[in-house]
Amino acid sequence: MQMTISGHHLDVTDPIRDYVTNKLSKLERHSEAITSVAVILTVDKLSQKAEATVHVTGGDLFANAEHDDLYAAIDALSDKLDRQLIKHKEKHRGH
Questions:
Q1: Segment 29-47, tens digit of pLDDT
Q2: What is the distance, to the nearest Å, from the Cα of residue 10 to the centroid of all Cα atoms in its chain?
Q3: Which among 19, 32, 70, 87 could bridge 48 via Cys, Cβ 3.0 to 4.6 Å?
């Protein structure tokens, strides 16, 4: 799985990069059909946003999360992508 992490109005430090990599690498447990993941971390005045696009065989999944804490936004993003990936997998299982 190829992972691209970029920051918008934010320098992506090594601890943030490691945290995102650790959280999103758990998605591989559900599906080995993930080809790439693009993550964009954004800082506005009071809110932190995390967006991700996951390229899967048969489609693309997109999720975004917003929170006061960047790490909490990454956690919420990971949970959303996890649910979407399970749903995508079950959808294609019967075909």
A1: 887 889 999 999 999 988 9
A2: 17
A3: 70
